[in-house]
Structure formats: C-alpha cells, structure tokens
Amino acid sequence: MSIADTVTLAARNAWALTFGSGVADPDPAPSTVLWDQPHRKLMRFDGAQQRPEPESVVLLVPPLAAPATCFDLQPDQSMARFLLESGRAPYLVDYGEITFADRGMGFEDWIDDILPEAVLRASADRGGVPVDLIGWSLGGTLSLLTAAANAQLPIRSITAVGAPLDYDKMTGIPQLRAVAKLTGGHAVSTAVRAAGGVPAGLTRLAYRATAWERELKRPWFVASNIARTETLARMETIDRFMAEMPGYPGRFYGQLWGRLILANDIGRGVVRLGERRIELANVTAPVLLVGGPTDVITPAAAVEAGLHTLTGAASVRYETAPGSHLGILTGPAARETTWTHLDKFLTTGV
C-alpha cells in the first residue's frame, strides 16, 4: 500500500471512530428465533437444521451480566460459526435485558425453568436428540447446576469455559469477605435489594476495571493501528460487547453473594437455596472444563476445582487456554486451544 493510500485509510478510520458508526458493522451469524419469551429467547443458527439426523445438538449458555453475543462476536471470533463448520447444530439461549421488574428472579429461575426449557426445546427441534451444553463463565456454573438438579433432562455432555467452581480461589474474594465480616455481609445484600439488582452500568464498569491496562493503553493502541482496519474492528467488537452488558436481578445476586461468594457452596460441591441442596456430584454426564492461566476474573484454579467436586460425572477433563476471561472463549488463540479441546470432547465424549 502506498503512503497516500495509507494516509487516506488512516483518515477514513479516524473519522469513522470519532464521528461515524465505527470502522466495521456487526456481522452476526444468521439465526432463526424458535421461541421468544422474556429472558428465554431460543435461537438456532442457520445451517443447523440441515444437519442430517445429528447425534446431538449444542446449546450455548451465556452467563448473566454478559450479552449472548459472547458466542458470536464477529466471523473470526465465533464459537457458533466454528460449531457449524465442524458439522454440529448450535442453538443459543438469550436472557435479554434485566430490569428492576426482574428483581425477584433467582438461581431457581435459571436452573429449574429457563435452561431446562431451552434444553427440551432444542432437543425437540431435532426429533428428541440429546443436548451438549456449553457455558461460559457463570453460564458454565448454571449449566452444571441445571444438570445436577434435573437428572431427567436429555443432557449428553457439559462444557464449562472459565466457570467459577471454587470462590476460595477467586481473585480478591478473601478481601471481600474480610470487609463483609464488618457488617455480617448485609451491606452489599441490602444495597442490592434496594436497587433491585446490580445495574447494567455497574457491571460494565466492573468489567472495564478488570481490563484497566487495555483501557489505559487504548489511545496509543488506536494511534498505532489507525491504518489497520481489521485490528480496529476487533477492538470495536470488544467495546460493543462491553457496552451491551446487562445487570443482575436482585435476588439472583443476593444468592450469588451469600451462597457462592461468602459461603463458597460451589467450592464445597453443594449449593444451598433455602432448604434445597443441589449437589455437583449428581452431574452424571461427561464434563469438559477449560481454565485460563492468565484469566484475572476466574483464575484457572477456580475452574480446575471441578475435578474434585464433580465426582459423579462419567468423566471430567480439564484443559487450559491462553487469554483473558473472554479471550479463552473466543480470542485469537481460541481456535487452536479451547475450540480444539471442545471438538475432540464432543467427538469422543472424554
């Protein structure tokens, strides 16, 4: 490219970033909505219906406080497209926006209602075949709890990427607990109840705080890549992802704070919801765990802990992948690491 062409491209990109809609438009994988109710929209990625008599279908399970686009950020950062390319039939459940009106929703809404319904509908769409669950972050935890609480569901396997399965091993948790002891843990829960949950703006701010180095270096990154449209497009994709983050319902976050963060029920293998006990040992399907050694949100050790609590699973395999919390799911190295591990797991079942 000539100097004149480079200057022209740089000027065009600078204008698009500053005054325009960006250097590249979103390009989601085509999909068809099969069911659309509040917090449970089920989509089938186009091409999945053309798979002849699949042995199973794949249901992608996002966490709360993150958009469902995590599985399909852009064409070269899309686990959904990878699954299609590898001959599988992927589906996605989308919880949509979380508002003050949803403040009464808790863990039970997901593990007893939203996710079981998504599993059954995805299975029924292809004649009743079993379902492979793939959950990222807290979506992986919810997938495991759903399987543990609903033995009758047609779940063939579960993959949990970056899923927090032991809060004793989570960064900053000891400090949070020390502060919580001063108020008996009530300060946070009271504030969350009063607000009806954790607002979307706060979850976005918290996520940006974990990537403070990226935010600090952003001006230099843009300046040094102003003529590299593809690089800027990837940056925009992450910016768009963070801008779309929803919040947590009040009751759900209260349970997360009390039972998982403070009491570490999940690390002990038994989550208590009122008088109810959900035991990870009741998961019987094969499980794949993927942790990130450089993941600052869910350290690899917090994912690996599932090797010791998923004692009833047919098999539990643990792998690692480089990158950030989102990066291990769909970053530049995901195809050669996480997606390769996933492809082998779904093919062999171990």
Structure commentary:
The protein has 350 residues and is of the alpha/beta class. The strands form three sheets. It has an eight-stranded mixed beta sheet with strand order 1-2-4-3-5-6-11-12, with helices on both faces. Strands 7-8 form a two-stranded antiparallel ribbon. It has a two-stranded antiparallel sheet with strand order 9-10. The longest helix has 19 residues, at 107-125. It has 15 helices and twelve strands. Helices cover 44% and strands 16% of the residues. The termini are far apart. The protein is globular, with a radius of gyration of 20 Å. It has helices at 3-18, 79-85, 107-125, 138-149, 173-181, 186-195, 200-210, 212-224, 229-243, 250-262, 265-268, 300-304, 306-309, 327-330, 338-348; strands at residues 31-35, 41-45, 57-61, 90-94, 131-136, 155-161, 197-198, 248-249, 270-273, 276-279, 287-291, 316-320. Helix 6 (186-195) runs antiparallel to helix 10.
Task: Sum this structure up briefly.
The protein has 350 residues and is an alpha/beta fold.
Beta-strand level of the residues, as a percent range? 15-25%
- Describe the global form: globular
Distance between the termini: 49 Å
> How many distinct helices?
15
Q: Structural class, from helix and strand content?
A: alpha/beta
Whole-angstrom Rg: 20 Å
Helix/strand order, N-terminal first: HEEEHEHEHEHHEHHHEHHEEEHHEHH
Unreliably modeled segments: none
User: What is the average per-residue confidence, as pLDDT, rounded to a whole number?
Assistant: 87
For the largest beta-sheet, the strand count, sense and barrel status come to:
8 strands, mixed
**Secondary structure: number of strands:** 12
The helix fraction, in percent, is 40-55%
Strand order of the largest sheet: 1-2-4-3-5-6-11-12
